[in-house]
From TrEMBL:
This is peptidylprolyl isomerase. It catalyses: [protein]-peptidylproline (omega=180) = [protein]-peptidylproline (omega=0). PPIases accelerate the folding of proteins during protein synthesis. Residues 50-138, 162-250, 274-362, 386-469 form the PPIase FKBP-type domain. It is found in: Endoplasmic reticulum. It comes from the Eukaryota. Transmembrane segments: none annotated. Coiled coil: none annotated.
Length: 566
């Protein structure tokens, strides 16, 4: 018989977690027998003395009869190797074991419960067989093990303490059992780093990560959920494995970041609050995934700047731009869509990246801008309202698209036949003069646009005046360039019969025009204009003008004014 035998039990394991001392002659010394009947392909570490282990086991006698099982209790054994937390044979037989390895350890009595046995479960001097699968192993000296799987080509910023991050992850135990996945929830894990929102191991492991980087973490239990575990998925004393993809990163103190990708030269004016702007954009997250694009909608985004019609970051980032400029605006969530996000496409707390191409902008009080690019050497007269002109033009948007190369156009200025801005720009020009003109939309085609001209578009015209015919005032068909004859009717009545037919009237008017004494309304058939003039004087419509019927329009207008005054 052995003297001084002593049995102690540790937590849930009544039989395996036993240590004893023997003060007797143990007899023949047989060692343990280890059968490694399943060895995993990958072994991240092997058990050594001083490590903490967590494993499941079935304990049987050599005849296969079960006397104990951690599976039956629903909880794996946990203990420290080499510190008498388990019987000596298992303590020895587990050394060198890998996670997920299966072993059968045959333990002779003197390395098990000896001649004393263990209660009514294990008789004295019994050889025992333990079938183990190792679930976890760690050491108090362990730190977070980090493996960088992939890194982005460019990293302008990495995670620091107090940063807010969004990341996707797959979480498993050390044996590969999954306990959680953000991918299955279709939602990132969002948290502040270094403020106790996360387990300590993640707080450490996320530091220095770049958006788009993938890391693999192994976190020991004391830097994870420790002795308590978490819920039903993470047992006590469990090492955790995280496979993490960093999707997003910002700090609550961040402002917008503006990067000018392509400057516009020259830049005669920069946008200010109150301007109306048209721009194209591609909108993405920090990981490069696009969530919206004006190009896909096939039209620009049009709005006022600095008046609260856009998210705050864009409202701010579009001030100070030049027409044609391309810039990138990075918006922290508190200057974008905040914690709530927007719809199904923009998650809460997302940093947004807008690549902007400014097409044009204007102020509601902008006027026509005229730049004379070529002056005419000889200029005796310039164009004005009611003149009939011919001109060449090229028309484009400010980004250079929509160019028109037309044959010469003709128009009577002030006749409401062309847009107001172009009509204004064509005035005071000399024949042969060239101009570059910028027309704001309220003097162009307005908010609705016209044909292929989009709404609210600023237009650029390149103009050349080809010819000019001076006009007559509105409402007139003919004007005198010199004093009219003192006895006009006598001059008209060639045969002195006191009546003027159309033939005499037409002959007289054409003679005045040919001698430079008078001018007909341009851009119309001269004979038609003269017929209209004749009809205006033939008040009784008998085909003849008498002296009583004949009145100059200027005298008629004066008479009307006198009547209005009366």
């Amino acid at each position: 018989p052995c003297l001084g035998a002593r049995i102690s039990y540790y937590r849930i394991s009544l039989l395996l977690a036993t240590w004893f001392s023997v003060d007797c002659n143990p007899g023949p010394i047989d060692d343990i027998a280890v059968d490694r009947y399943f060895i995993p392909k990958s072994c991240i570490r092997e058990v050594k003395s001083g490590d903490f282990v967590r494993y499941h086991y079935n304990g049987t006698f050599t005849d296969g009869k079960l006397f104990d099982s951690s599976y039956d209790r629903g909880a794996a054994f946990f203990g420290q190797v080499g510190q008498k937390w388990q019987i000596a044979g298992v303590d020895k037989g587990i050394l060198g074991m890998c996670v997920n390895e299966h072993r059968k350890i045959t333990v002779p009595p003197h390395l098990a419960y000896g001649s004393q046995g263990a209660g009514d479960k294990v008789p004295p001097d019994t050889t025992l067989v333990f079938d183990l699968v190792l679930l976890d192993v760690f050491n108090r000296a362990d730190q977070v093990q980090t493996k960088v799987i992939s890194t982005p080509k460019e990293c302008k910023r990495s995670v620091m303490r107090t940063d807010f991050v969004r990341f996707h992850f797959n979480g498993t135990l050390l044996d590969g059992s999954a306990f959680d996945s953000s991918y299955k929830r279709s939602q990132t894990q969002d948290s502040v780093v270094g403020e106790g929102w996360l387990i300590k191991g993640l707080d450490e492991g996320l530091l220095g990560m770049c958006v788009g980087e993938i890391r693999h973490f192994i976190i020991p239990p004391f830097l994870a959920f420790g002795e308590k575990g978490y819920g039903t998925e993470i047992p006590a004393h469990a090492s955790l494995v995280y496979h993490i993809l960093l999707e997003d990163l910002h700090n609550p103190k961040d402002d917008i970041i503006v990067e000018v990708m392509k400057a516009s030269e020259p830049c005669t004016r920069k946008s200010v609050a109150g301007d109306y702007i048209r721009y194209h954009y591609n909108a993405s997250f920090l990981n490069g995934i696009t969530f919206d694009s004006s190009y896909q909608h096939n039209h620009t985004y049009n709005t006022y700047i600095g008046m609260g019609y856009m998210i705050a970051g864009i409202d701010k980032g579009l001030q100070g731009v030049c027409t044609g400029e391309r810039r990138r605006i990075i918006l922290p969530p508190h200057l974008a869509y905040g914690q709530q996000g927007a719809g199904k496409d923009i998650p809460g707390s997302a940093v947004l990246v807008f690549d902007i191409h400014v097409i044009d902008f204007h102020g509601v009080k902008d006027t026509v801008q005229v730049d004379i690019t070529r002056k005419s050497e000889a200029c005796n007269e310039t164009s004005e309202v009611n003149d009939f002109i011919q001109y060449h033009y090229n028309c484009s948007l400010l980004d250079g698209t929509l160019r028109d190369y037309e044959t010469p156009q003709d128009v009577v200025l002030g006749g409401d036949k062309i847009i107001d801005g172009l009509d204004e720009a064509l005035r005071n020009m000399c024949v042969g003069e060239r101009r570059t003109v910028i027309v704001p939309p309220h003097l162009g085609h307005g908010e609705k646009g016209a044909g292929i001209v989009p709404g609210s578009a600023v237009l650029r015209f390149e103009l050349e005046l080809v010819s000019l015919q001076k006009g007559v005032p509105e409402g007139y068909l003919f004007i005198w360039l010199e004093e009219s004859p003192g006895h006009l009717f006598e001059a008209l009545d060639v045969n002195q019969d006191q009546q003027v037919p159309l033939e005499e009237f037409s002959q007289f008017i054409k003679q005045q025009v040919s001698e430079g004494k008078g001018r007909l309304k341009p851009a119309q058939d001269p004979d038609s204009v003269i017929i209209d003039m004749f009809k205006n004087q033939d008040r009784n419509t008998d085909g003849l003008i008498t002296q009583d019927e004949l009145k100059l329009k200027v005298d008629e207008d004066a008479e009307k004014t006198r009547h209005e005054e009366l």
